[in-house]
Structures are given as structure tokens and as C-alpha cells.
């Protein structure tokens, strides 16, 4: 029997998409909270409000991180070895195929290049149904963080085969669109950027009393980390950079927002002598997350795995500068020297120099933070999600 979950949205449609039926395949729709699956849930919310029908096929667990938006059909899966919080879809079972055939989608949207994603694309191609893939992370970079960097060319080749079997790709940043084309992943790549909730992420959420409760003095600048605590987020680069700041005598505290399997490693590798000591507050949501983000002074994001960088946009919306690796995602958001600083990935000396500039110059921090907030205000979720619907409709109207 199929596991079926749903959420009633009850919001008025603004642009009708009646007759559009989207089958969405995701390796993680809601059982672990991250930027990718939250973007997918917002997309489904938008499509349903516009009159489309959407059915999502993804692993289902007993206690998901958040309630799924729209109907959710369970796909057989197994826990990923060493990362048991994530599950790997393993089969397009007979029950799922029967449900899929009954739904009779007009478009198949695949959000992860896993086994079931491959099978879903094959299912669509066999029936002449457009297949769209959204790219949410740079999977080819993951092996380098676990000592298997030599496998990266093989991963790139596998992704190229998968993405070229799709009719079109959608990617969340202009830099990622360019990279996918450069890598030969597909010739048809559209932009699906990300939005930000200004009721949560806004400078007014800053709370100095809350900071004091964490042992952070009002005149003590805060370097923030926001995201899953996993090695592929660049935790080693972050820790080494903070150690450089400590040795240089740059006064600061580190505020870490998030949870993950590498939390213990991160705690062990941040300085312990009071100058740069990390304050870990775990996973935050809603207004609590907005308060924590706005109470930083600068975000440090050394990761090169993001295709967009939701956390970067959220911090910018709070009127704060960002020091980030000059990689896909961040390059499309951070205006180097105006809203933050872009640094060669892994260059801890330059990262420390960029951070020190903000930590010692409040006027520079305010100026770049204000510019970042202005940039973030351009991102409207409904306008952004309509771009995905436009890709669906373009493929449906093309001669096939």
C-alpha cells in the first residue's frame, strides 16, 4: 500500500495552470530539512495555488523534519551508509508505477540524480513526456571531502549522462547555469533562483539581549556559520580560518547555527581559549532563525558545493555582509567589495583577511550589509517559481 501524506494550502491562485500535472521525484522531500527540499516545497505550494496538480515521489519516514506540501507517495529506500539521516531511493516499485500511471503526469520533474531519478526519466521518455531536472547541489565535489577526490571525473561523467537524457535543466544561479553548459550537462538550462522570506529575515530581527544571553558582549563582533554541519560545507576551512584570526588577535566570537553529523568534529576544531570560541545553538526555525541570523555581524561561507546558497541570501536580507568562496552560487549573489568578499576556495589566509576587515570596521560592515539587503529584496518567491512553470509550459508547447 502506498504511503500518502498531504498538506492543505488553501491559498488563492493568481495565475491559472489548470490541466498541468507534475510528477516530482525527490530523494529528500521533507525528512531532513535543507535548502533544496524547502525550495521544492515552496515550488509545489506555488504550483498548487495556480491550479496545477502535483504529486511528489520520495522516501517517507515516521518523523519528518517538516510537513510535506501536497500529496507525497513513498518510494522504497535505504539509509545511506555513514550518513543514515539521508535515504537513497532504490526502486520504482510496481505500486509506485501504478500510482504514477493513474496520475498520468504531463511533466516529470526529477530533483536528484539517483537510481529512481534515472528510472523516472526513462519512464517519461518511453511515453513521450517531457522530463525536467533541477540541480540543487554540486554532487561531483562531494568525494574530495571524504578522501575520494580521484572519483570526481567519474561522478561528472555519470551526471552528464543523466542530465543529457532530460529535455531541460533548471539551476538556481547564473554561475551554475554557465557551469552546467560548460560541463556539457545539457544545452537547455534555465534559471530557477531562490527567494527569501522578509518576514523572517530582516535587520529588525537583531536582538542584542539574546546575544548577551549566549555570553556575547555587545562590542564583540560575531562571525556566523549557518547550515548543516557536514564536512562538505567546508568546516575544515572555516576552522583553520578562525584559528588564523585567533593568532592575529582579532577579537570575535563564532555563532554556529545548525546541526549535523560533523558537529563533534567542528566543536573540537574551533579555538577553545575564549578568542574565537564557538557558540553552538543547534537547528533554528522561523522567527528564532531570523533572530539568530540577524544577530551575527558577518557570515562566513567557505563551501563550494552550493548551486545557489540560500543561507547567503538570508543573511544578506538581514543587512549583513558575506565572506564566501568564489564558487557557483555565491558568485551570483555576492558582489565582491560591495556586499561582501569573494575569496579563492580554500585560501584561509585571504578568508581571514576579508573577515578581519569587517570585524574591525563597523562602518564597512554596515555599508556592505545595506547593499546586500537591497540585493536580497529583489527575490520574490512567486515570480521565481513561475520561471519553473514557464519551463514546463515551454516544453509542452514544443513540437515533440
Describe this structure in words.
- The chain is an alpha/beta fold and 400 residues long.
- The protein folds into two domains: 4-195 and 380-397, Rossmann fold, CATH 3.40.50; 203-376, 3-Layer(aba) Sandwich (Rossmann fold), CATH 3.40.50.2000.
- The protein is 38% helix and 17% strand.
- The protein is built from 14 helices and 16 strands.
- The strands form three sheets. It has an eight-stranded mixed beta sheet with strand order 1-4-3-2-7-8-9-10, sandwiched between helices.
- β2 (21-25), α1 (35-49) and β3 (53-58) form a beta-alpha-beta unit.
- α7 (235-248) packs across α12 (348-359) and α10 (310-317) packs across α13 (362-376).
Write the layout of secondary structure elements.
Blueprint: E1 4-5, E2 21-25, H1 35-49, E3 53-58, E4 72-74, E5 77-80, E6 83-89, H2 94-103, E7 107-110, H3 115-126, E8 131-134, H4 152-164, E9 168-171, H5 174-182, E10 189-191, H6 208-213, E11 222-226, H7 235-248, E12 253-257, H8 263-269, E13 278-282, H9 286-294, E14 298-301, H10 310-317, E15 322-325, H11 330-333, E16 340-343, H12 348-359, H13 362-376, H14 381-397
Parallel strand pairs: 2-3, 2-7, 3-4, 7-8, 8-9, 9-10, 11-12, 11-14, 12-13, 14-15, 15-16
Antiparallel strand pairs: 1-4, 5-6
Helix pairs in contact: 1-14, 7-12, 10-13
